[in-house]
């Protein structure tokens, strides 16, 4: 035989639980609550992307000059790491600068929200 159900569920008596009926119409919504505010421009992230882009470009140029022999080097095993590090630093800077440029021009699918912010 099963015990009778009590009116107390999880320690709360049923007389203390307040329910409210949902509205039948959508009149309680206004258009302003669905309007998106214009995104903030992440200036710090764009500055960091610019710095990464410039440092990466410089390292790629130096690595290419070392590799081609235009800059004479005694240890040739140091040319490839300069080139690889330059590429690894250049790529994220270029990617985020491209997103910032397209977002500033207003291209569809690009927004400042796609750039990570530090705030």
Automatic annotation (TrEMBL):
<keyword id="KW-0770">Synapse</keyword>
<dbReference type="GO" id="GO:0005776">
    <property type="term" value="C:autophagosome"/>
</dbReference>
<dbReference type="GO" id="GO:0005794">
    <property type="term" value="C:Golgi apparatus"/>
</dbReference>
<keyword id="KW-0968">Cytoplasmic vesicle</keyword>
<comment type="similarity">
    <text>Belongs to the TMEM134/TMEM230 family.</text>
</comment>
<dbReference type="InterPro" id="IPR008590">
    <property type="entry name" value="TMEM_230/134"/>
</dbReference>
<dbReference type="GO" id="GO:0005769">
    <property type="term" value="C:early endosome"/>
</dbReference>
<dbReference type="GO" id="GO:0048489">
    <property type="term" value="P:synaptic vesicle transport"/>
</dbReference>
<dbReference type="GO" id="GO:0016020">
    <property type="term" value="C:membrane"/>
</dbReference>
<dbReference type="GO" id="GO:0005770">
    <property type="term" value="C:late endosome"/>
</dbReference>
<feature type="transmembrane region" description="Helical">
    <location>
        <begin position="79"/>
        <end position="97"/>
    </location>
</feature>
<keyword id="KW-0333">Golgi apparatus</keyword>
<feature type="transmembrane region" description="Helical">
    <location>
        <begin position="45"/>
        <end position="67"/>
    </location>
</feature>
<keyword id="KW-0967">Endosome</keyword>
<comment type="function">
    <text>Involved in trafficking and recycling of synaptic vesicles.</text>
</comment>
<dbReference type="InterPro" id="IPR044234">
    <property type="entry name" value="TMEM230"/>
</dbReference>
<dbReference type="Pfam" id="PF05915">
    <property type="entry name" value="TMEM_230_134"/>
</dbReference>
<keyword id="KW-0472">Membrane</keyword>
<dbReference type="GO" id="GO:0008021">
    <property type="term" value="C:synaptic vesicle"/>
</dbReference>
<protein>
    <recommendedName>
        <fullName>Transmembrane protein 230</fullName>
    </recommendedName>
</protein>
<keyword id="KW-0812">Transmembrane</keyword>
<keyword id="KW-1133">Transmembrane helix</keyword>
<dbReference type="GO" id="GO:0055037">
    <property type="term" value="C:recycling endosome"/>
</dbReference>
């Amino acid at each position: 035989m099963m015990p009778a159900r009590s009116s107390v569920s999880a320690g709360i008596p049923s007389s203390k639980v307040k329910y409210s009926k949902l509205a039948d119409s959508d009149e309680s919504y206004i258009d302003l609550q669905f309007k998106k505010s214009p995104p903030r421009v992440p200036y710090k992230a764009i500055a960091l992307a610019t710095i990464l882009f410039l440092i990466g470009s410089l390292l790629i140029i130096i690595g290419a000059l070392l590799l081609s022999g235009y800059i004479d080097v005694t240890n040739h095993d140091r040319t490839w790491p300069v080139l690889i590090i330059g590429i690894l630093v250049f790529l994220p800077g270029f990617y985020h600068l491209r997103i910032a440029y397209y977002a500033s021009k207003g291209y569809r699918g690009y927004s400042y929200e796609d750039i990570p912010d530090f705030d």
